[in-house]
Specification:
mainly beta; Neuraminidase; four-stranded antiparallel sheet; 36 strands; 36% strand
């Protein structure tokens, strides 16, 4: 469990398992631990293909609608983890926009969950046309009930100067931050923030801030994802109009959002860390380390980057890279757009390889050395006969036992699909079950201070200003 800091008046828990004592769990390269299911091919929804985000709420897995091969769409897909994975009734699809929610409620990317609501990061509603209409789902309501959904466009209410085109979202215990990627003028760095203690459709609940426009860093634009470590929010650098970059952006949640000193950037590659770490599309936190990538290097490198959050952000020795490709673990023409931490292993999924015959999933064992090739392994489920052989999955989520991967194929839109991939980690019983995860979520909402213990594992709930660990 990571030491946790809290913002005033809210409760947050940052959970990271003490993974070094866990067994090897499910065999990564055993095809029997993998499964695929396409809900649309079994009569669910209208055309549930092409999803760019995924989140778990304690029982259900939600998929964020992006592009279905024909158009940017708004058909949210949901799976009930208490039902059979390959059983159509376990799946539901609902298009809020088609039922009158919002004006352009389609074309979303990443998701964030605050314990009750799920927020969809707005990106584009048609080819080349970005938008800023945030979609929200109330998980305590009926999924297919119009009243469970709302949409709000801060940029239409004088929030920011061009608060559109966001690639992901992250929750810090009170605020939801939307990750700036690309707006109507190009790649941008205007971070959008929503206060979950305020009314969703009120302008005063929203704020936007562009660190780069306020002399922070070099060119802190074009980010793909973000993660919260209990105090800081880190943004994964992807690219600007000048090309791929590695300028990591960090916000201190204990300081004023709209003040430049609250923000910092650091480019490890510019300080002789690795060869050329940059062009990242994904980021994850394991309780101590923040991981990026592997991304795009100027000379074809596919370096994963790791930062030790217990060390100084601006010190090169706090950072380390590893290039799995150079160590014979595979060859990728693209970066890795998806990542998920299952309590011990970190799994990276490629955006979709330009060689569409392969979709290698890369796995790192956090209980072993980051720079040891033996700590890494690869597996291609599609080539091993899982599902129909369709490639392309964007990102993943862990429900306590299974990892789910959201289906997409941006490199080949004509091959956009809806085949969800699932991996059985074989997690031990000491990990909370799906129903227990739901209990944890509810506990965060109900308890103001205390400790919740489930099956010998400790979950901490603290007040603002306190720091606890267990």
């Amino acid at each position: 469990m990571r030491s946790t800091s809290l913002l005033t008046g809210f409760t947050v828990v940052v959970f990271a398992a003490a993974c070094s004592t866990w067994p090897a769990m499910g065999q990564f390269d055993d095809v029997s631990n993998w499964a695929a299911f396409d809900a649309g091919e079994h009569g669910v929804g209208v055309d549930p293909d092409g999803y760019d985000g995924i989140v778990f709420d304690g029982r259900y897995v939600y998929f964020s609608p992006g592009f279905n091969g024909t158009e940017h769409h708004g058909e949210v897909l949901r799976y009930d983890t208490e039902g059979d994975f390959d059983h159509a009734p376990s799946w539901t699809a609902y298009d809020p926009g088609a039922h009158g929610v919002g004006l352009i409620a389609r074309g979303y990317r990443g998701l964030a969950f605050d314990g009750r609501y799920i927020y969809f990061a707005p990106f584009a509603y048609s080819a080349g046309t970005v938008h800023g209409e945030v979609l929200r789902c109330d998980t305590t309501g009926e999924f297919s009930d119009l009243s469970s959904w709302a949409a709000y466009n801060p940029s239409s209410h004088d929030i920011g100067y061009n608060a559109t085109g966001y690639n992901d979202a992250v929750f810090d215990g009170r605020y939801v931050y939307f990750v700036p990627f690309y707006n109507s003028t190009g790649t941008h760095g205007e971070v959008l923030r929503y206060d979950t203690l305020a009314t969703f459709d009120t302008p005063s609940a929203w704020n936007a801030y562009d660190p780069g426009a306020n002399d922070v860093g070099n060119t802190p634009d074009g980010y793909k994802s973000a993660v919260f470590d209990g105090r800081y929010v880190y943004f994964a650098p992807s690219h600007t109009s000048a090309g791929y970059h590695g300028e990591v952006l960090r916000y201190d949640t204990e300081r004023d959002f709209s003040e430049a000193p609250s923000w910092a950037t650091y480019d490890p590659g510019e300080h002789d860390v690795g060869m050329d770490p940059g062009g990242f599309a994904t980021i994850v936190f394991d309780g101590r380390y923040v991981y990026f990538g592997p991304g795009f290097g100027a000379n074809g490198e596919r370096e994963a980057l790791r930062y030790d959050t217990t060390a100084d952000f601006f010190t090169p020795s706090s950072w380390v890279t590893f290039d799995p490709q150079s160590q014979g673990l595979g060859t990728w023409e693209t970066s890795f757009a998806g990542v998920v931490f299952d309590g011990r292993y970190i799994l990276f999924t490629p955006h979709t390889d330009f060689d569409i015959s392969t979709e290698v999933i890369l796995r790192y064992d956090t209980a072993a050395s980051f720079i040891d090739p033996l700590s890494w392994s690869v597996f291609d489920p599609a080539s091993a006969g899982v599902g129909t052989g369709i490639d392309g999955h964007h990102t993943g989520v862990f429900d306590g036992r299974y990892v789910y991967f959201a289906p997409t194929n941006w490199n080949y839109p004509e091959l956009m699909h809806g085949e969800v991939l699932r991996y059985d980690t074989g997690a031990p019983e000491s990990i909370p079950t799906v129903s227990e995860w739901g209990l944890v979520v509810m506990a965060l909402l109900l308890l103001s201070v205390g400790t919740l213990v489930l099956q010998r594992r400790c979950y901490l709930v603290v007040h603002a200003g306190e720091r606890k660990s267990c």
